[in-house]
Amino acid sequence: WNFSAALEEVQALIGVGQRGPIAAQGGLAHDDEGVPVGSVKLLRDFAQMIFYTNTSGIPFVHATQDQLYRLLAWQHWYRSVKDVSTEYAIDNAHLLHRILSDLASGGPGSSIYTGHDGNMDGLAAIFNWTWEAPPYMGGALLPTPPGSGLLFEYDLGSGAIEVSYVYHAFNEPGDFKLSQSKVATMSSFEQLLALAVEGLKSRDGAYECFQQAPAGIGAICQHLSDCTAMAGLCCNGGGQAACCHSLMQV
């Protein structure tokens, strides 16, 4: 979606204020840390306010439903640029450790983690995940409307783990309901763990932060049914027998 066209569209919706048109505040620019600034940030701010106003029951009568979803994509674009980063991967390393620990422990029941857009963006940075969420614009934009989240489902029978994105399409008629969109499927917990470690190590400092969680990766590996198969990952190449013995002491 063309930036200039989006800027003109939101300007037509809000009018021109005392400080002049939004375009006068600079183009598609970033500061020294790569954070979008200028007119693109204002576009994001107004798009978010217009959408959230509607979801709060205060209709912005000049905007169509299609415009609401398309303009909100600039808020998601902003976060995908700012938050899908090494900084957010590090910030969420302990959260990932807790998720993996809870999954590895097995058994019935659910764990619920309450967080923010940045938590999902941080996990996306670690795993290189994207998701669709129609009617929101998806893919690399990584839409994160209020009340959305990532769902990890562990099939204890097959051992497979499926990750999906769960969200609500605001402004849609009818009762409140959640939609679900597939993100990734792993054939085993061991595959998920290997992908997590690979992703963490691809972000400078993230794996080191992950290891600072209680007992580090050993707290997760001790739950594996076949310790020797994961010795290289869990014990940094140590001997398999010694590795499994040490994990049992965690």
Number of helices: 11
DSSP, total strands: 7
Helix content: 40-55%
Indicate the radius of gyration in whole angstroms.
22 Å
Q: Mean pLDDT, nearest integer?
A: 87
**Classification by helices and strands:** alpha+beta
Largest β sheet strand count, sense and barrel closure: 3 strands, antiparallel
SS strand fraction:
5-15%
Uncertain regions: pLDDT < 50 for 5+ in a row? 237-241
Written as H for each helix and E for each strand, in order along the chain, the element string is: HEEHHHHHEEEEEHHHHH
Keywords:
two-stranded antiparallel ribbon, three-stranded antiparallel beta sheet, alpha+beta, 250 residues, 11 helices, Acid phosphatase
Explain what this protein looks like in three dimensions.
This protein is an alpha+beta fold and 250 residues long. The chain has a domain at 86-212. The chain is built from eleven helices and seven strands. The chain has helices spanning 3-14, 39-55, 65-82, 86-91, 93-105, 117-127, 189-201, 206-211, 218-221, 231-234, 240-248; strands at residues 29-30, 36-37, 131-133, 136-139, 149-154, 161-167, 179-186. Strands 5-6-7 form a three-stranded antiparallel beta sheet. Strands 1-2 form a two-stranded antiparallel ribbon. Helix 1 crosses helix 2 (39-55), helix 2 packs across helix 3 (65-82) and helix 5 (93-105) packs antiparallel against helix 7. It is elongated, with a radius of gyration of 22 Å. The model is unreliable at 237-241 (pLDDT under 50). It comes from Alexandrium catenella. This is Acid phosphatase.
